Amino acid sequence: GARKSLNAMLKPSKLGCYDVSNSAYLSMQLGAIKEVFNSTEINEAWQNITDALISKQHEDGHFPGEWWEGSRGDNIADLVYVQNWAALALQIAATHNEKYQPAFERAVNFLLKIQNKTEFPITNGAWQGAYDCAAEDWGGEDKKEGGPSVIYSGWTNAPILATLAIERLRLKEHPLIVRR
User: Fold this and answer.
1) Contact 71, 150 (CB under 8 A)
2) Would you give the DSSP letter of residue 119?
3) Phi and psi at residue 137, in whole multiples of 5°?
4) Could you tell me the maximum CA-CA distance found in the chain, to the nearest angstrom?
5) 150 vs 53, higher pLDDT
6) What is the H or E stretch that residue 78 is in?
7) Edge-to-edge strand order for the sheet containing 137-138?
8) Non-local CB neighbours of 47 within 8 Å, separated by 6+ positions
9) pLDDT tens per residue, range 91-140
10) Pairing verdict, β 130-132 and 137-138
11) Mutual angle of helices 101-114 and 158-169, in 10-degree steps
């Protein structure tokens, strides 16, 4: 059952077909459980999917919006389905292997750069659903989820704040990694 499904999902030919959002989810999940299974296949799949995720990261640290429900575009950072989860996935990855630290730092620095600095208490310090990197302002499509005028406390701000809090605390072990 579950092992067969996992093996089918982790075939090297399958790993390149995931969009950025699913690459982030899969990297995060495999990174969290890989030590429990102590499996060469899971570890290799985790490295492959994490490397594929990083290959889509821009120099400024953002990932292109590719998720069908979110704001899409190479210059659009989707903070509902992509950027938020990619930063957390890269944090877990950097906990396992320091080669992922530069990508994680780029992702975090991007998030800190775009964090809202406004006179409005409801948006000050928060992240909105999409950021247009070309315009250097909140942008994207409001007709889909995660446009520039939305602020999701759970989908966007919670994973970003969790990532930043874990980084700030400099924990020796990442709290989302399951150990044997």
Assistant:
1) no
2) S
3) -160, 165
4) 53
5) 53
6) strand 76-78
7) 76-78, 130-132, 137-138
8) 97
9) 999 999 999 999 999 999 999 999 999 898 888 999 988 999 999 998 87
10) antiparallel
11) 120
- Read off the tokens for 137: 């302002």
Amino acid type, 56: K
Q: Are 143 and 68 in contact (CB under 8 A)?
A: no
Residue carrying structure tokens 């998720």: 67
What's the residue count for the chain? Answer: 180
Written as six digits, the tokens of 67 are: 């998720």
Q: Measured between alpha carbons, how far is 82 from 14 in angstroms, rounded to an integer?
A: 19
pLDDT in tens, 5-33: 666 666 655 555 678 888 999 999 898 88
> Phi first, then psi: what are they for 145, rounded to 5°?
-65, 145
Residue keyed to tokens 């989820």: 145
